[in-house]
Amino acid sequence: MALVPYEEGGGWAARQLHSPWATFRFASRTIRLQQDWRRLGGAAGAVVLCAYLEVEGIDLRDRSAIELGAGTGLLGIVLTLLGAGWMRAPCPPVPPLGARVTLTDRAAALELLESNVQANLPPELRPRAVVKELTWGKDLDNFPPGAFDLVLGADIVYLEETFAELLQTLEHLCSAQTVILLSCRLRYERDLKFLKMLRERFSVSEVHYDSSKDVHIYKAHRGSPKEEF
Question: Which H, E and C letters describe the chain, residue by residue?
Fold first, then answer.
């Protein structure tokens, strides 16, 4: 089953690029997102990662997840719809975040992000999705170290001056059991530099490549290779 962005009338790539709204189909639901492309960029990486999670049938239940650079919120919304964020029993000794899905970005993006989350999740799922401010390398005291099962990011590898702070943030959020999933395009030498830096701190493997969008998905974690989540 191929999952693609959906818009009535077709012409998604050309039409949504300049539209204040973008529409997608995941988890048997239509997701309609308000967007500001000038501030928040594209969605190819998020679309590919959402499709990967759904098509591969990855079991997200009972897993706490945090998304970095959530932008319009597509990935975090789909994570919640697919079952991430159920509370575990017994619950680990961390703040009320528990096993929720946490969508993070810088302060300027939070209002739009929160609006999209509230508009696209049914009422019974909204308490499982939390929007929080996170500037990489600066707001880490607001997040329990190693408290997440999954750390995800889509299209966040593009500014070389942020690489050190991004890696610092990943190290803070990850325990020995945490799995990182990053989707990105490898267009420039700096992108390969980031992968090299990531491999110096984590075990990294490429788990998927979407040739139609030229997007790679990498899985990373501490220690020896893991076959499953």
Answer: CCCCCCCCCCCHHHHHHCCCEEEEEECCEEEEEECCHHHHCCCHHHHHHHHHHHHCCCCCCCCCEEEECCCCCHHHHHHHHCCCCCCCCCCCCCCCCCCCEEEEECHHHHHHHHHHHHHHCCCCCHHHEEEEECCCCCCHHHCCCCCCCEEEEECCCCCHHHHHHHHHHHHHHCCCCCEEEEEECCCCHHHHHHHHHHHCCCEEEEEEEECCCCEEEEEEECCCCCCCC
Answer whether 0.70 is exceeded by the pTM: yes
Domains for the chain: give ranges and CATH numbers: 59-85+96-179 (3.40.50.150)
Nearest to 209 by CA among 27, 24, 44, 87: 44
pLDDT digits (tens, 9 = 90+) for 180-194: 999 999 988 999 999
Q: Which two tokens stand for residue 22?
A: 């973008």
Give the tens place of pLDDT for each residue, 123-147: 999 999 999 999 999 989 999 999 9
